[in-house]
Amino acid sequence: MSATRLHVWSGPRNISTAMMRSWENRPDTVVVDEPFYAAYLARTGIDHPAREEVIASQPTDEAAILASLEAPLPDGRDLHYAKQMTLHLRPDDDLLWTLRFRNVMLIRDPAEVVASYVKSRESCEPDDIGLPQQQRMVAFWDAHDAAPPVIDAADFLRAPEGYLRWICDWVGVPFTDRMLSWPAGPRDTDGVWAPHWYAAVQASTGFEPWRPRQVHLSAHDAAVAATCRPAYDALRARRLIL
């Protein structure tokens, strides 16, 4: 039986790690956490927490990364879930390889993303939060008749079971209640960057219910969010509504 391979793309500070927890709690699933992160840091020279540890922990060669994403799964596992960050790819990358997988785009209001992002890293620019890249990737998939479902994190948190059931049906796997809760704590599959970014998820046992956020941004950070707003609005206009 061929494996089902699902890639869920987002920017940082979304519900992407909680989504990875949800799928990893299935007995049939293997997950991978941000496989292009080390390549992104090595290529750009950008300073992130635990930069050298991240680079040492993963391959930085694209061919090796892509091979790992299509490697055979262990016996008893037939679903491969990749948590992907759109900002980890180059603006001029050939995206044809993504067509070999089922792709979902996960979005979040940019003001909320920026407010969360700057708690872990002092500087923030539009490309750091992935929304321009998300819009580019969706346009590419549209042009290849592979339009992805776009899911807004706020919608998802209002009805996680409904959205998970929809995705399971879309990729052709059965839904299980195990996807709605998981044990607290770290996972061996968490990237080495987890201590700097995953505190809330590691304390969680399920999806946090949606609640309105009070966002307070500096003038610079507000400008970053405003720059990303048109991309978010365009993606949100086509989001999956259940």
UniProtKB/TrEMBL annotation:
Belongs to the class-IV pyridoxal-phosphate-dependent aminotransferase family. It holds the Pfam family Sulfotransfer_5. Gene3D superfamilies: P-loop containing nucleotide triphosphate hydrolases (3.40.50.300). Keywords: Hydrolase. One of its GO terms (molecular function) is hydrolase activity. One of its GO terms (biological process) is carboxylic acid metabolic process. It comes from Nocardioides iriomotensis. The keyword Ribonucleoprotein does not apply. This is HAD family hydrolase.
